[in-house]
Design goal:
Elements: E1 2-3, E2 6-7, E3 11-15, E4 19-24, E5 31-35, E6 40-44, E7 51-56, E8 61-66, E9 79-85
Parallel strand pairs: 3-9
Antiparallel strand pairs: 1-2, 4-7, 5-6, 8-9
Length: about 90
């Protein structure tokens, strides 16, 4: 869920090499979901319409998730994280 001015959940934990499918909605306005390192950048329309984002989890590490559509005064604070664990390690 994208909403002013946060993502819920704000932290997504996955394992390297996993196929990831994020299904994202917004009830309050237009937002974007961007994870630069995995070349994800999708507009999230208002009104609850679902968008689906598919990708493969990259190398282990923490990747910032940001809102890529200006959504108001605290737009810059709308952040999350994609946390990728190495194969075989606990999340």
């Amino acid at each position: 869920m994208a909403k002013r001015f946060s993502f819920e959940p704000s932290r997504v934990e996955v394992t390297q090499g996993e196929h990831i499918r994020l299904v994202v909605t917004s009830d309050d306005g237009v937002h974007g979901l961007e994870i630069k390192k995995v070349k994800v950048n999708k507009k999230v329309p208002r009104g609850g319409e679902q968008i689906t984002i598919d990708f493969v989890a990259p190398a282990p590490g923490e990747y910032p998730i940001v809102c890529s559509e200006y959504c108001g005064s605290d737009h810059e604070e709308m952040k999350g994280a994609l946390v990728v664990a190495a194969k075989g390690s606990p999340r």
